[in-house]
Structure prediction request, 199 residues.
Amino acid sequence: MSTAVANSKNKLGTLEMVYVSMFAALMMIGANITSMVPFMVIGGVPITLQLFFAVLAGAFLGSRLGAISMAVYAFIGLVGAPVFARFSGGIGEILSPTFGFILSFILTAFITGLIIEKNKGIHIYISAALVGTIVSYLFGTNWMYAAYKLWFAAPEAFSYKVAWMWMAVPFVKDVPLAVLAGIFAHRMGKVIKKSRVAT
Prediction:
């Protein structure tokens, strides 16, 4: 009996699958929303809205579904669909210096959702969004640095400091977006809760 209950909890319901699919689709849009602007690429790292949607997925869907939605997005890209930044995709993307950010989105959504599940106050939503953003930068930037040093051709004068300097510009953009994602998810959570009570 307990096994059956556990299995039912692990399965996704129809509404949950819709949410997972929706956020995977939002990631595809966010990855390429700035692809038509060449100067939005710094040090080989495109400026996108992916982190915003990854944080929003965790804040809105929770740790489990948020992480699943990001994993679905990563899987779709790895099997060949051009859903990563600059319409790239395929298993070869694993070797890309920026692939660490793709993986970080799964962790970001999970951690953001996990923090919020323990407290529903708006300050927790915002804090969780900022923590998720920092996690993404830590994981993604360190992956990028390792990739350039170990298996990718590093630019001249490339160093750990330079790697973080590259990320300064998108970080300035992602911090207020993280705050916005936290506020938006909190408000949407309250709206959904009220609608459920009304019905």
Notes: The beta strands are 41-42, 45-46.
